[in-house]
Design goal:
Blueprint (H helix, E strand, L loop, with lengths): L6 H10 L10 E6 L4 E5 L7 H8 L4 H20 L2 E2 L8 E3 L7 E3 L6 E2 L18 H4 L9 H18 L15 H11 L12 H10 L10 H5 L2 H4 L27
Antiparallel strand pairs: 1-2, 3-6, 4-5
C-alpha cells in the first residue's frame, strides 16, 4: 500500500473483475491488509506463452493458429465489454497446463474502459508490441485502444511463429540506440520472416492486414474472424462463444476499492 497503488491498479481491479471468460484469468477477489493490497486470481499452471514459445524456438503454423484463435476470441470479448487491454503480449498470456494448452489473458493494469475512463492518450505498453499510433501519440491526443490491441495480437502471432520480435534485429543488441531503431521499424512496418520458415500465403495475407500503420486501414476483429487462415481447423462454436458469455450482475462499480 502507499505510493505504488496508482490509478493503474484501480483500473486493473475495476476492469478485470468484469471480464469473466474461459480465456481470461479469473479475477476472484481483492482485499487490503496492513502493508499490501492483494489481488487473488485464478491459477494458470502452464506458465506464460513467452517461455512456451522460447522453449520450442517458435511454433508450427498450425499450433500458432490454435493459440491465435483463442487470443482473438478473448480480445473480442474484452472489446465487447468496453475495455481496451493496451498491453497484450506473450508475457501476459498464461497457459492452463492441459496437454493441448488453453490460453488465459492476464494483467489489465494498462486497460481502459470506453465509458467509465478517459480515452487512451498515453504511450503505455511494452515497446516491442506498441502500435504506430501509440508511439506517435502526443499530449492532448487520443487513439483507439481497441484498434491498437489488434496490432499487438499481430505481433504476438509473429513471435509465436518465429520466436523473436518482428521489429528487432540481432545486430541491435549492442547498439545503444536499439530501442529507437526498433521504433523506427515499427513506424515503417519493416518486418520479414526468416528464410528457414515456410509461411503460407494465407498467413502472410492476414499479418499484412493486421500490421498496418494506419489504424483506419487495419483489419478489424470481425474481419479476422472471417479470414480463411483464421477459420482453418476452427473448433465448432468458437465464433459464437462470446454470444453466450454472461456479464457479471454486479455491473461496473466504481466505489473506492483501494
Amino acid at each position: 500500500r502507499g505510493e505504488k497503488i496508482t490509478k493503474y491498479v484501480e483500473r486493473e481491479i475495476l476492469n478485470h473483475r468484469q471480464l469473466v471468460h474461459p480465456h481470461i484469468v479469473r479475477f476472484k477477489e481483492v482485499f487490503v491488509c496492513q502493508n499490501f493490497l492483494c489481488i487473488v486470481m485464478e491459477y494458470a499452471a502452464g506458465g506464460d506463452m513467452f517461455d512456451y514459445v522460447v522453449r520450442r524456438g517458435g511454433l508450427r503454423e498450425s499450433e500458432a493458429r490454435w493459440f491465435f484463435q483463442q487470443l482473438i476470441i478473448a480480445t473480442e470479448f474484452i472489446h465487447r465489454m468496453g475495455v481496451a487491454n493496451r498491453d497484450i503480449k506473450l508475457e501476459n498470456t498464461l497457459l492452463d497446463g492441459s496437454p493441448k494448452p488453453l490460453i488465459k489473458l492476464c494483467d489489465f493494469g494498462y486497460s481502459k474502459h470506453e465509458k467509465f475512463q478517459s480515452a487512451p492518450g498515453s504511450r503505455v505498453g511494452t515497446p516491442a508490441y506498441l502500435a504506430p499510433e501509440v508511439i506517435l501519440t502526443t499530449t492532448g491526443n487520443t487513439y483507439n485502444g481497441k484498434v491498437s490491441d489488434i496490432w499487438s495480437c499481430g505481433v504476438m502471432l509473429y513471435v509465436m511463429l518465429v520466436g523473436s520480435y518482428p521489429f528487432e534485429r540481432a545486430e541491435d543488441k549492442k547498439d545503444p540506440q536499439r530501442l529507437q531503431r526498433m521504433i523506427q521499424r515499427i513506424l515503417r512496418v519493416e518486418y520479414s520472416f526468416p528464410e528457414r520458415l515456410h509461411i503460407s500465403a494465407e498467413l502472410q495475407d492476414l499479418l499484412d492486414k493486421i500490421l498496418v500503420a494506419d489504424p483506419e486501414k487495419r483489419i478489424t476483429i470481425p474481419e479476422i474472424l472471417e479470414h480463411p487462415w483464421y477459420n482453418k481447423d476452427l473448433p465448432p462454436g468458437v465464433k459464437e462463444m462470446n454470444d453466450t458469455m454472461v456479464i457479471p450482475s454486479s455491473g461496473y462499480q466504481t466505489e473506492d476499492c483501494l
